[in-house]
Amino acid sequence: TQAAFPDGFLWGASTSAYQVEGSWDSDGKGPSVVDMLTHPAGKADFTVASDHYQRMESDVALFAQLGLKAYRFSIAWSRVIPDGDGNVNQEGLNFYRRLVDTLCAHGIEPIVTLYHFDLPWALEQKGGWLNRHTIDAFVRYADVLFLALGNKVRFWLTINEQNTMILHPGAIGTPPGRELPDKKSLYQQSHHMLVAQAQVMQRCHQRLPEAKIGPAINTTSMYAATCRPEDAIAAHNWETLRCWSFLDVAVHGRYNALALRYLQDRGLAPQMLPQDTAQLAAARPDFVAINYYSTATIAASRGDASDVAPRAGDQQIMLGEPGVYRPEENPYTAKTPYGWVIDPVGLRLTLRKVCERYGLPVMITENGIGAPDTLAADGTVDDGYRIDFLRQHIEQIQLALADGVEVIGYFPWSAIDVVSTHQGYAKRYGFIYVNRHEQTLNDLRRIPKRSFYWYQQVIASNGHQ
Ligand code: BGP
């Protein structure tokens, strides 16, 4: 394709702390909610993960060899503040100082996610996001990071995929003996996260006037299954409730009217304190970050059990809602080995919608294909399907740029193999293979996959493929 990527485009890749770091209790780190999860039998847990905490320098050297202009990672809150709201653990903070310094030494722009699913366990025991105390704890934690890393970090992301945490809590899991929270509590948690996010964005702007901060929501487009008008309404409902309701508060500073009515009609509207409205209204992000994997196709409700179905092959993500809408198969799209719809054109469409709706630059902070990659006897990993997947998505980003969307960066998931949120190490996404299996750690050696050499060329030529 003809390159049309702006100079300074942030060609990157992504990871998150608990999925890549391991060393889950080293150097004073406190446990987080994800450390307490029970894992599906035979699947990798997060204790060692990809051992990145121990191999950070050599991993970053590989990222530099890949040619990354930017690297998106998350900071483990309970490494920096082990109990979430108490003393700062300097050793934990030093790890991230070293990571940022190492990235900068290689000319790689650090992009920091403040919180990626791993709430400190001590805060969870005090009620987690249901307790407004967590709002203050998050703002304080963010402030610690702004002060410690703000001289080198220019781009910050607030909360990763708040909508996944609220709408599909099963995708992240619950510790043994705990039930998934009911919907009303989830929306109350969500409200507290939104207030916390608004305060953190404001704090960032006060502390670091040059820095940019934004939310990172899993964002996608919904298609109506047919041209039946009722299906169009159903698809619109779902897009509003699943994506816009979260981003609208972050960007416009107030609740989406349709989403709020939906919550009120079902007795799910969160309790809001008088100051919340002002706090939400006072904060503005500098860009919108989206994690994009696939699209869904939605039809009007039938009002029976067929309204709800798991995303193919994935029991943790339930699409549809009884009496409101139901998922349908899309005959025009292929699927990944894990049943996720592959829809590069849907990325262009989503970028256009985000641009029109918010008028802000857009960063694509996740996109990728999970597959059971294998190390061949000759020591190579041929992930041609990943090259195809990413190439098609990059082509659509290019078209979106030509449409007038200001896309500022692309961060495929993931820079290196990481533990999948609930499918262990069988499902890999990285440009770099990690030589381990579910419970057999082997030597954790790093092996660049075929996609590594391909992406290296894409970056080196600023988008020529
Ligand atoms: C996103 C999460 C990531 C990552 C990715 C792939 O929702 O932000 O943490 O895991 O999805 O998902 P999975 O590992 O379940 O395939």
Describe the structure.
- By secondary structure, the protein is an alpha/beta fold.
- It has a single domain (10-460), classed as Glycosidases (TIM Barrel, Alpha-Beta Barrel).
- The protein has helices at residues 17-20, 52-66, 77-80, 90-105, 121-125, 133-149, 162-167, 169-172, 183-207, 229-252, 257-265, 274-282, 344-358, 384-403, 450-460; strands at residues 10-14, 70-74, 109-115, 155-160, 212-218, 222-224, 288-291, 296-300, 309-311, 314-319, 325-328, 334-335, 341-342, 362-366, 407-410, 432-434, 446-448.
- It has an 8-stranded parallel β-barrel, surrounded by 5 helices. A 3-stranded mixed sheet has the order 6-8-11, covered by helices on one side.
- Helix 2 packs parallel to helix 4 (90-105) and helix 9 (183-207) crosses helix 12 (274-282).
- The structure holds 6-O-phosphono-beta-D-galactopyranose.
- 6-O-phosphono-beta-D-galactopyranose is lined by residues 16, 19, 160-161, 164, 218, 291, 366, 370, 413, 420-423, 427.
